[in-house]
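On clarity, I found the account of how folds are encoded harder to follow than it need be. An entry of this sort, consisting of the sequence and the corresponding backbone structure tokens, reads as follows:
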Amino acid sequence: MSHVLDLTQEERQAQIVEEAERFAAEQIGPRARVFDEAGVLADDLIQDMATRGYLTANFPTEYGGLGLDPVHYGLFQQAIGKADCSTRTLITVHSALCGESLLRWGNKEQKELWLPRMAKGEALAAFALSEPNVGTDAKSIETRYRKVGDTYVLNGNKKWISFGDKADLFVVIAGNDQGQISAFLVERAFPGITTKPLKGMLAGRATHIAMIEFDNVEVPAANLVGNEGGGFTYVVSTALDHGRYSIAWAGVSIAQEAVNQMGSYARERKQFGKRLAEFQLIKGIIADATTETHAARALCLKAGEMRKSKAQDAVMETTMAKYYASKVAMKVATDCVQVHGGNGCISDYPAERLFREAKMLEIIEGTSQIQQEIISGYALRKYTKACNQ
């Protein structure tokens, strides 16, 4: 009986992913270039996605989500990401970074208040960690807080905050003079908050990236997420883990779309009286790109299965998936531009946008060099021990 129920659950989730793929191809993909050039993600699309449950597909159904498990949530993000990176970024920030942090560390009142609103699109959320002087070294954040009666008072500046200029709710990471780092739910409506959009971005142009200033912002004590002092160890770690899983799938989505674009172009474009696809060197590029994309997807699927079963090394497998998939995305997007030649350098074709978006994946949620540090430390512990046995 349980086997039947499992199959039914699998089929339901697979159906959601298939529907999302059709929706993305028909409703998102055709608008991706417009979003990129305008620097705006359309409100009507966001609301449409909210109505379908797509903003929080990973949330339990009791909070208005679709209840996707990690594997299907990854495939769902791949479907959206192939159509448009900015729309996928909204899902990463809103449901993975902020949503998963609240699901894991928020109290009952916080979950009941915010998660249904996030699912309905009534409150978009952004994760406010990075600062003008603090990127990878997140423990050195300079935004400060102090306890005053029943409130916390926040002062400082955040930078590179995706959807910072659009979000209604911020998960803000700040430290106090005692060296504690804590996480707070901060509403945009609170007095003392100013956001300023960042222009001239290489990519993520429609993700409303912004600076955020907190000037004596009073936050109710009830808005503390988790325990005071647990902001980095628990909330940030949870957010980055889920963010990296999402970015891993973002890499696969860009790589797959780049393969799609280079294949289509190579079959149509003629040079020297032959289609590009007939040239052996072009075939080699397409073959390598396809193989590397499949390998990246396999690593993401393995990470998803391990997260689903709560395997001990799931976080490390996710880190490897993020590192590898972002590298593959950059390489395959570069190859896509190469196959397009001059046409790969103009926005008339998706190749140039995929190339720009791929580069971002090697930086956000921890640079590739930080991932290498983490992975090498894991390997030196695990495999050195194995050799000694």
In short: The radius of gyration is 21 Å. The chain is about 55% helix and 15% strand.
